[in-house]
Amino acid sequence: MAKKKKDAPEQASDDADAPAPAPKTSGEDFTGARLKAAREKAGLTVAEISERTKISKAVLSALEDERYEDMPNARVYVRGFVRCVARELGLDLDAVTRSYLPRWERWIAEQPERY
Question: In which domain, by residue range, is 77 found?
C-alpha cells in the first residue's frame, strides 16, 4: 500500500505539467453548414424549423449560411437561436454553442462600431 501512496503524488505532479485538454465538442465543428446538414438529415425545412422554434426564416438562413451581418449583433440572441435550433435537431446544445459562437464573436470583434 505504501507504494500506491508514493505513486499517487508523482502521478499528480506529472498531470500538473501536462497541457490542459482541448474542450470536447464530440469531434464536430458545428458550422452553419453542419447545422443545415443536420436539419436536412432530419428531413426538415427552414420553414418547419421556423414554425417549431418561432425564429424567423431569415435568421435561420443567416445562421446556416453564417451571414453574420444578417443576424442580431447581440450575443444573447445569437446564442439563444443556436441553442434553440440545436435542441430542435437533437444536437448537444453546449457543443454547438462552444463551436458556433466563437466564429460569430470574432466577426463582431472585427466590425467597426455600429451606432
Answer: 29-103
